[in-house]
Write a structure and sequence with these properties.
- The chain has helices at residues 2-19, 91-105; strands at 24-27, 30-33, 35-37, 52-62, 69-80, 110-115, 122-130, 134-135, 139-141, 144-156.
- By secondary structure, the chain is an alpha+beta fold.
- The chain is elongated, with a radius of gyration of 17 Å.
């Protein structure tokens, strides 16, 4: 399960760097693509704006196959307040840009599962697959527009895998 989650995140991170190299953030003093995994970061009162935040919310296992098929739900949260130069009046456009970036990052919807706990990362024997995103309605809190897109991720659990 952890290898599938890591693979999904790193795939999206690398694709974001290709889709929009300007969408970056500084986290713990390091500039990197503007995407993070909520469970791997320190708790924050408010999620950062203009970045994608992955939140793993549900998991189930199907043991009817020769190998256990894991199904996980990932919520991709993102928000924007617009730009200062436009007094935030461009926040709808910026949210639409992030919608398009997410669609581009999720296509194609499968990738070779990798083990990133070793150096160099090692290819595993199975693939990670995911659904099209289910976009939730936009929510507004003061000057900030937020959207959640739910993606279902599937991967076979390999022998000895956590």
């Amino acid at each position: 399960m952890e290898n599938a989650k890591d693979t999904f995140y790193i795939t999206l991170r690398n694709r974001l760097a290709a889709v929009n190299p300007q969408r970056v953030m500084v986290l713990r003093g390091v500039q990197r693509p503007g995407i993070l995994v909520e469970e791997a970061e320190a708790p924050a009162a408010q999620l950062p704006g203009d970045v994608f935040v992955l939140r793993w919310t549900a998991m189930s296992a199907d043991t009817q196959f020769p190998a256990t098929m894991m199904e996980m739900v990932c919520e991709v949260l993102y928000a924007t307040s617009g730009t200062v130069n436009n007094a935030g009046l461009d926040r709808g456009r910026l949210l639409a840009e992030m919608d398009a970036e997410l669609l581009a990052m999720l296509s194609p919807n499968s990738v070779q599962k990798m083990n990133y706990s070793v150096t160099p990362a090692a290819a595993m024997n199975t693939m990670v697959f995911w659904s099209e995103p289910a976009f939730q309605p936009v929510t507004t809190l003061r000057d900030r527009l937020t959207r959640i897109a739910k993606v279902t991720v599937w991967a076979y659990q390999e022998q000895g895998e956590l």
